[in-house]
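Researcher: Last one for today. Full complex below.
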Amino acid sequence: MNRTLCFRRLRALCHKETLQIIRDPSSNIIAFVLPVLLLFIFGYGINLDSSAVRIGVVLEDTSPEARHLTDNLYGSPYLAVTTGLTRSAMEEALIAGQVSGFIVIPVDYGATLKRASKPAELLVVTDGSAPNTASFVQNYLRGAWNEGLIQRTDEQGKPAMPNITFESRFWFNASAESRNYLIPGSITIIMTVIGTLLTSLVVAREWERGTMEALLASPVTRTELLLSKLLPYYVLGIISLFLCVAIAVFILNIPFRGSLLVLWGIGSLFLASCLGMGLLLSTSLRNQFNAAQAALNAAFLPALMLSGFVYEIRSMPAAVQAFTYLVPARYFVTAMQTIFQAGNVWPVLLNSSLFLLMSSVFFIGMTALKTRRGLE
Amino acid sequence: MDNAIVCLESVQKSFKGSSKPALTGFSAAILPGCVTGLVGPDGAGKTTLIRLMAGLLAPTAGSIRIQGLDPIANASTLRDAIGYMPQKFGLYEDLTVLENLQLHADLRGLLGQQRSDTFKRLLDFTDLARFTSRFAGKLSGGMKQKLGLACALLGQPRLLLLDEPGVGVDPISRRELWKMVNSLADQGIAVIWSTAYLDEAELCQHVLLMNEGQLLFYGRPAELTCRLQDRAFQIRNISVNRRKVLAMALCRPDVMDGVIQGRNVRLLLRPHATPPNPSEFNAGANAELVPVAPRFEDAFIEALGGGPGGYSELAQRLQPIIGENDTVVEAVGLTKLFGDFAATDHVNFAVKRGEIFGLLGPNGAGKSTTFRMLCGLLKPTSGTARVLGIDLKTNASEARQQLGYMAQKFSLYGNLTVKQNLMFFSGIYGLKGSQQQDMVKSMTEVFNFQALLGRKPDTLPLGFKQRLALACAIMHGPAILFLDEPTSGVDPVTRREFWTHINGMVEKGVTVIVTTHFMDEAEYCDRIALVFRGKIIAAGTPDQLKAQVASTANPDPTMEDAFITLVQSQSDLDVAKQNQSTPAPSKQAPANKETP
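Model: Here's the assembly. Have a good evening.
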């Protein structure tokens, strides 16, 4: 009698699938070369921290106060300062893109400060076409100016300390380096690519090459067929996941504070959901090109744009925010960032796991429904 | 039919989204111990019927019983009794021969001693024992087919379903497969062989002749052909243009069908017609009418209501082509390498004006590659291709204006309408204004496109697509026409229509170069070149080639006989050469023969 699951047949199918993976250069590239490449791009190529913004200083005044402020700017690791004597020269530099902004210390700066009868004025000109840099320059100058004011009054022995001081402290990512949260997030992208893109091709390929017909005419059952597609690619995905984590920790020096067991558990759930989606697409489309296109749009792009990996979910429009709750990658990004940076924070991890479990069951269940023992 | 293994009772199958049913009202019984042919052109419903029997599709109406069981409800019981080889053989190309066998053996639960015995038996049977570690993708068409057959035979089936096993396979491997299949039938297995080659029907014990989802005939092929006894004739010793003789004969009401066979013309008369006198066709003083045996194809033509007649409206409307130079197409040492694989290997030939020149060979022999180089679509690795004296390497676009090309697969825009396709293709060849309008109108009338002008070719039957492709290739009045498998997959009546047009155009001075893998179609050509594994192994008129292989045992060989004998003597020659140059053990010679 034909049972729904026969281990001999399942083993034979998995063996076949494994041989195909090993012999197919494109699977190996997607599973092993692509992750390494992406990790290094995200690790070294993309950096959301602004470092050493180039600014100019127009020294119209040469009083000690003005020099003091300039020294402060020179001392900052975040700024690369060039000085000039005329505004027009600096304007040209700004237009040419050599500086992102400049500050003009007017002729009466020192004198006004000394007299303290009215606030001293500084002119800050920034390049509005790069708003992030512009506001950074503005804020930094304001900070530097305040600092300078405090120091100066200190030196003069007249305490003019403001009543409130701010002390920022970044939790979980103490140095506030973007790499520390980009890398765990990018592992999500890699898992999506392996899980969905790779598997979206495999069933479609069998249909295109006519081998699916030969399989369907043999005693293989639906369960065996489904498992033989899931298991080998699951193993491939998990190997790739730990490869990514190893690169992140040992080469890119990203702190890892959670446990590997938890990582494996949640990674498995996410992978199952990705594999399910990939199989669902290729089972319904039966054409490699269409399946890959669909996988790109249905899995890869949402994982990149809507997972909160690069783009902050809270700054999206409400409707888009609501939609992100349906993107499995969103939960895995949260879980990965938590495991890497905060450790095993159970409320967050359990919440993510629950959703990933639901989406895995949904996609694999849908695939099982779509996988029919027939050609129609 | 108590002992029938398969009983079909008014089986009907419709697919969602298509207005016409794929199969209508099929009733037949398939017997064990013989080869039953499913014969018909593309779109006849052969694959659908095989899939229904394999339990992969459910019939819309009617019932199918295999050994008294329903193939879907009792799928698990029947699965071991049915061996199924899908089109393209269903092999994993990235697995080796042995791995493919092992996979199917595991799936079918063939284990232990029984397994090794079966492997040995099948590898001997298919002569694949030497290639067990070769990847299936690296096998030649014939070997793939044998491996597919071996996989289908693993479960010791009582019913063997083979879907177009003859496609993509050279005639020699096809003959070997027929031997294998016949020996399986002798063991009591019911073999179902689907094919679009009508000559294969005569090799089957039973035939289901199908067209557009309808069963035209079920029974022994001889039953069908014996009805046509005394109606098939050949006009021999024709001293005038045989194409004109054929055209004249086909215009007579008492002639149902006619084809050119080398120097001769073969006619099929309507029932009860008195054999005409050859002088009525102006066939020359010595012409004589000789009765010949009817063929299965004659029966098919009759079932479809007869051939299309001999008058080509298309040719009538064409401007005659006048030119002085005699040799219009020339290939000198033409070679194309893909990696280290020579698709075309030092090919030489010259085609004269107003000639039909055929490249004949199985799929994958290199015909299309040669063709594409002659049309300037592919750059040769070495050698020269000249059209009207123009070297295609240096001046492809000038040459292309002079030639028409109809590609093997339908290559027009499936989502433009018929009219838009006609306008587009006439436009890119430089037809403008009223001249263009007239030509499009002319094509519409010739090919009866009036009702189809607004339809998209994708929704049309294959025959209409092919007609449209031909129309698009000739609107600019080319002096040379390249037709790559123009009649592949269409029914014989549509094939006749194509040849009527081709013959008519040749009479107007057009030079036609055509590829085909239908051996009998080569008989229409003035000269043919036999292409095998990238090389031209023989060239000449069809009668010369057949005469080359005539022997006392086979005094009147067919084109296929000629092909097989010539290929074999060629490979014997290769082997002899190899043995001379390298003292390799002769044991390895057959292995080299099989290398694709």
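Chain B has three domains: 6-224, 228-311, 326-546. The first strand of chain B starts at residue 6 and ends at 13.
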